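Quick one - inputs below.
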Amino acid sequence: MLAYTGKRLVSLVPILIVVAVVVFFVMHLTPGDPAAVMLGTEASQADIAQLRHQLGLDEPVLAQFVDWLGGVARGDLGTSIFMKMPVSQAIAEHVGPTLSLSILAQLVAAVLALPLGILAAKKRGTATDQMVMGVSLLGISLPSFLLGLFLMLVFAVELRWFPVSGYKPLADGFLEHLRYLVLPALALGSMQAALIARMTRASMLEVLNQGYIEIARAKGLREISVVFKHALRNAFIPIVTVVGQSFALLIGGATVTETVFNIPGLGQLIVNAVERRDYEVIQGVVLVIAALYVVLNLIVDLLYGLIDPRIRHKR
Amino acid sequence: MTIGGMTDLSGTDGVRGEEASRKELLRIEGLVTRFHTARGTVRAVDGVSFSIGSGEILGVVGESGCGKSVTSRSIMRLYDENKAAGHEGKVLLKGRNLLELSKSEMRNVRGNEIAMIFQDTLSSLNPVYTIGNQIAEAVRRRGGAGKKEARRRAVDLLGAVGIPDPERRFEEYPHQLSGGMRQRVMIAMALACEPSLLIADEPTTALDVTIQSQILQLIGSLQERYGMSIMLITHDLGVVAEVCTRVVVMYLGQIIEDTDVRTLFERPLHPYTHGLLRSMPKADRAREGKLESIPGVVPSLHAVPRGCRFAGRCEYADSKCLEEMPSLTAAGEGHQVRCWHYDRIGREWGNGA
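Output:
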């Protein structure tokens, strides 16, 4: 298990190199010039050229790439042209809200979805099942920004239970932190909840038809232990897969929700960076998100082994 | 679930000529199991009545789809969670009608009185728990045993079913064992309930021939040792000949013949039973002769024939057979058959037909 984990961690490196190459060249080959953006429309050609030279943007793209990658290898993601601070510091400042939001959204999703999915599978074909499936279809179809605006209107503007928007770091107290995150987490988590509920139901339905479920009942076990001990753990592999993937998507995709609720997360950082052609920041954020994605996948893979001894023994 | 009275008594109208010493453990009267499907309601088990004596090994024989497995699952009430299923009739275990028990009473019957093993040992054992865990679970379900005690008992049971090095095997997962070993584990798990009735649904079908006879021997010896009754579901008459004392032959949800094993092989009365016997491979039968098979296919449960259900495939069928369903009739000491022409058929079989 340990050796496997080590091997997987090493295999992270080539993936990240590929991501680095792609993000660097996509950024540098698309039109737009940070020097021009920085100096505004009034600037003369000479001024722009001078700034380009200062920033090293007039060097050959390949030389810039090697320079940047060398820095990345040493853990230096470069410096933001606009924010005048190291990219790693900018990311560190913005990653907290995004992680908090994603974790809370995923928690909301899992807490809602698992019981509902199991219930729907147990009550297959009944009104309960149809209702769960109907609501989950709605959850998948509804864009999170729309749901976000709706939640904001009802629970913040009308009922005033929660703040309309903004963010308070954990340092301001856990409850205060939570209060600001509830609505965005609901908006962001609802689609994941719908996906997870559907996957849970499908997976449970398959497992509930297995012989060992019949045997578990034939042993005289309570239906509760049939479902939660014998069925759920077997149904978990596809569920964990969806949870892992959607979590990775959450981190990358919280941008819209962060914008709606004005949360200073990675999403806001990258949107601003793209608008300003802040190359180093964009590259750094994308690289960090890619790394998170790969690590999450690794965690999911390791969980497979924990859940299912057959996978564990194959390694 | 509807638990009504006996709506179909066709199975009980025969004289039951059992010897007085035979003590009944399980008696099924007019059992019907219905399933509501998109294409209408089907009766997978349609008025089945039979009994199992204490310490008896009853063979239940028939082609796939004849209702033998559904009968066994109905006895265990394994369709309780299936909203589309319903029962009628009585399943009397030691005089108690299982179909009228509450769910928790039924759980106690399952954990203590009736145990079950299946054909497919790989899917019958939970892949994510050790076999020891699964056996100990059954031991603890029976009650009275702590964790340590349950483990000790589970290891004993693994030894009792002939698994070498049970201490080590306790920690293994189903996928680490061979099919034969897994069936032994299943049997150990069933024994953990100390059941008075073991239902074995095609326990040897998926196994190699050599392993098959080992498992059958094991089942036979355990029956002697623990004195339980066994309901052995199979489509293999060879298995029946090897271990059973009595046999029930099923066709399309009904019993068509019910007798002791000796009579079944010496003087079978139903043409379907004849077909089954003839389609058994035999070493002493001339090699040139093709292996016989019963012509035609089993009708669908959605289109059950009006008269005798076997009439469409039967060489003896006449107009009466097509119109009227024969009832299960006593044809001798402890021998019942569902056929209009059993008299004639019996005579012809005796003459070497």
